[in-house]
Amino acid sequence: MDQDALAELLSDTTEPSDVGQSQQLDSPLHSYSFVTTQNAPGCTQQQRLLSSLNDHSLVNLVNSYEAPQPAKRSLLEHESDDDEQNWDSNISHLSSHQNNVNFDVIDDESPTVASPSIVATSGENSDDDQPITDAHPRVASNINFGDYGQYFSDKKVLQQDRDQYMKKLYQNALNDGKPFPPVFKDCIIYINGRTDPDRLQLHQKIILYGGQFMHFLSGKTSVTHIIASNLTAKKRVEFQKYKVVTPQWVTDSIAANKRLPWQDFALITGDDDQGKLKLTKAKPPKGEPNVEDKNSENTLDCNHPDFLRSFFAKSRLHHLSTWKADLRALFCERYLEHSNIQGITENESVAIFHIDFDCFFATVSALSDPRYRLYEDPLAVAHGNNSSEIASCNYVARSFGVKNGMWVRSARRLCPKLVCMPYNFEQYEVNSKLLYQILAETHFFDMILPVSIDEAICVKRVSTFTGFHDVQGQCEMVTQTIRQQVFDATNGCTVSIGCGPSLVSARLALKDAKPNGKRVIMNLTNETELDNFQAKFPLNDLPGVGFSIVHKIRQQLFPDASTTPTIGDLKAKSTLKSLTSILGTKTGRKIHLFLSAKDDEENSRILRNPLDFFARKSISVDINYAIRFDSIHDIDDFIDRVCEHLTSKIHDLGMVTPQVTLKIMRRCEHAPIEPAKYLGSGECDTFSKSSRFGIPTDEIGLIATEIKSSFRMLACPPKDLRGLAVQLNKLEMKATRNYQKKLPFGDAILTGDSNIPVLKPNAFHSMPRILKEDVRSEFTKRHLQIPPSPTRNLTVSVSPVKEYWDRFGKSTKDSFKQELPSTLDEDFMRNLPPELQREIKRDHAIVKKTRNSVRKGNVIKDYGTTNSPLSLRSTLEEIEQFQSLERPRDIYHLIGTWIDQTITVGPHADDLDLFDRYLDKLVLKRKTNRALQIARTMSCRLEYHAAFTSSESKGRQEWEEYLLRRMIPKLNSSCSFRTPQVQFEI
DNA sequence: CGCTGGAGCCAG
DNA sequence: CATCGCTGGCTCCAGCG
User: Fold this and answer.
1) Protein CA at A390 to nucleotide C1' at B10, angstroms
2) Which PANTHER family match (predicted)?
3) Is residue A266 part of a domain?
4) Which helix (H) or strand (E) holds A213?
5) How many domains is chain A partitioned into structurally?
């Protein structure tokens, strides 16, 4: 590093953690395929666009969503002629690849340039990974990264090739292969120092929009623009003659779709002796608006309506989860489009490629700022400096013993010089996309299975290799090509690849390859060889084997071992029988198979039937951070917001749920009120409670009410709540015929200007979520009225039943006041009806668990009465219709059918009497939960009909009348009769 | 025996 | 200032009829 750069570095006092906090907002890259489906952070361009529209256009824009939404774009999609081959079975054989390896896909105009990957793959027995790993066989400090950089900087042609290649990749990945407008045509741009958005993002933007990028300022003459956020005094003088602009020039030009005059963004103004920054109109690079933003963000506590959004925006784990879900959804979409893809059958031999970025977050974050030296300094990605968790650390840090998930404070004890870098979620997405793009373009694999943002499993049938010879060699070649391409495309991110005949072996090979290497073991054909290869790995390298399983195995089979046993150790010491007895049938069997490098049935599902494997079965929100509530009402509001989030999602997915689960974390009795980690949950007990709807629903009112009621059942004092999760289970597709029909508020009209078109009620709610939020705020800003969500509207204005229900639900709120007895009086218990006994036992169990804070083996029993098969013995004689029914769901179904069939004429009085008697029985038997559930089912059903029948419908009115006047009061009285005895506490 | 709800585990 | 401890899927187990 030269003196100037050093001086600049030292003069820059901003903490690294400030870098890149807000840069995701402005990127043009945010709008591609999977990112948009989730809660991508707000998008200023979009907001800008919206606010530029007049009311008329805005409403029209929203209305356009009444039509079916355009299909999401795929990250695996590209538009070239051979598109179809993407997922096809082995259309392009390796032989054609050998010709293509030279990157002539990149740029046909310069085929003469030797590609580095040719060097790497040309040697037949070259086991080394040139040029990436050759000079740096193992760990970081040896890696001669500079050589590679030099390689590019010396050869401008190559540099441009690479940019062209990247441009093409980006276009494919981000813009359906179409070029972006050439905003920076004829510009040759150099970036100086640290910038916001960071260097990597600016680079991408510049080349995407037609500019040329200079990595080094050696030949200053050719550079037309220099981008910098800040300049040292010395640089200021040095750059006097250049067009030095702020990064905003780039972002604003792109937003404006044309190159804006550089003078407006000049960093050095001629008449400014003090070198004061010229702050440009929209947003200064660093300054007050940012600070304000941060402050307001920081003050968001869990009561703030935007808390969820702001928390999610910064949570690595949330990002990981949503990325994964998105990738899975995308896979299914693609899979369905290409019906010719076949799962792998049991008898087929395959080569599995397990591909994974090396310390992904750390690498990407490090590359975004030239001050971070990835291969020399110990680096980690984390938010804070003490009890902040390390999301990812580079291999230098690992050599000190630093591990992912460690708190920064403890890591610093191992490695005092550890440098913390900020997250850069947007760039992670971009680089991930590039990986998947490259994998797809390779046209080598039969399937590309997403594992996560930084990891994929690729499959190739052995039978589809060219000839049958040298499978090993072909695999090695393809791994090396991929590694090289990813390295180039991502500006220096390395992937490691493990390749083997099974999922397990590929995974272990990957472990062997890391960091920055490849390991192909397709040549280990007989069992002994494979065994020998596997023997050295520690047990926890096996998939699905974590802390707990290792612990159990150690305890039972290696009581004296001081370290984690290896696969070889376990294989020598265990039998199928011993494993299943220690770990259970399935787990034991699975591990037993793993010991011979075989995949078990469950693991193979991803190969056999990927669609089934990736299908979404549940959806949930977990928040176990910053949860601090004072009152149950605040919690109710929070639950509402969580449910809103979830229902909005399943609504977008067109799904409904028959079962919801609430899971809470409650501060352990002995745990301090505030744990070591700021706003952390500390040590907690967890409790969960699930309940079912008679008919699957996506209705927020029902779901939220149910969850709130579950929360009360769990009887957690609001102040002790430290975490809350809501899950919608057993998701199913909503029947499509519904909801297309006319809804009762179809004539909803926007107030005000009569020239403004009528807003179609469905339209707003059919918009993609990311758009919805901005449109909503835009509407609010203009005092335009947004129609309520169809489902919610029903609950509010159409169905008094619902309203009643809400009140009914709330009526239980204040009734759990008394303390539970610390021990149960046996006599007292014996004299109670069994149902009640169970209920009290359950409550007692909660208290006991809470008191003891026992972590394991303290299962709460008799939890759900809602779904235990109904004891119909006494009701059977009287109610013929229920005779054959044993399961609650059948009962709900019957009631649903009953309502459906009588919705126009109303229920028959005799039937109602019969039904009344049935309810009486339930009440008498204290099965109020069941009765409650039935009422809920009926309410739900009636609301459903309310959507399609006129409010005059006599039959429906009768039904509602019955529900309101007879059924609910009956349940209410039974409920108030019951609650004092149940003795919850709040 | 098969089913269910709750808890636990694991991965990234 | 801290700091952002998610989420989906499988398995195990006890209890029920």
Assistant:
1) 19
2) DNA REPAIR PROTEIN REV1 (PTHR45990)
3) no
4) strand A212-214
5) 1
